[in-house]
Specification:
- It is a single chain.
- The chain has 139 residues and is of the alpha/beta class.
- The chain is 37% helix and 19% strand.
- The protein contains 5 helices and 5 strands.
- The protein has a 5-stranded parallel beta sheet, with helices on both faces.
């Protein structure tokens, strides 16, 4: 199973999820971090990933080979994250056959109606637990 983590800005949100799944997944699970910038990629690598890449092409190409994509909801919204998510990146992620686990992080130009107003730490834990469940890892 190939899990792709995508984040932008400082990469801290997805890095938190990564730190909670490391050691809980089957050993043959491939984990890849994709950052919209070098800082985001570095944060994911620091959180425990062994492989990472940066930029639009990395996101567009690698998202097509993923089984699961994890990131903030902005990764499927063109021009979100202060413009770091290009329309091509958003289209590549949204059209990927991968299952998407998206964290409902508020953006300036849209609101998500119908989601619980949970603390970010709870959302991170739920995302990590769902990844482990999908991969058949240690709950």
């Amino acid at each position: 199973m190939r899990i792709v983590f995508i984040d932008g800005m400082g990469g801290g949100l997805v890095a938190q999820v990564i730190s909670q799944v490391i050691g809980r997944l089957p050993q043959d699970t491939e984990l890849i971090g994709l950052g919209t910038n070098a800082l985001a990629t570095a944060a994911m690598l620091k959180a425990g990933l062994k492989r990472g890449a940066t930029g639009e092409n990395a996101v567009c190409v690698t998202s097509q080979t993923a089984d699961v994509i994890v990131g903030p909801i902005g990764i499927v919204l063109p021009n979100s994250m202060l413009g770091e998510i290009t329309p091509q990146m958003a289209a590549a992620v949204a059209s990927s056959r991968a299952r998407k686990l998206l964290l409902p992080v508020a953006q300036n130009h849209f609101e998500i109606i119908g989601t619980d107003n949970k603390p970010m730490s709870q959302l991170v834990k739920e995302a990590a637990d769902k990844i482990v469940e999908i991969c058949g890892g240690k709950i």
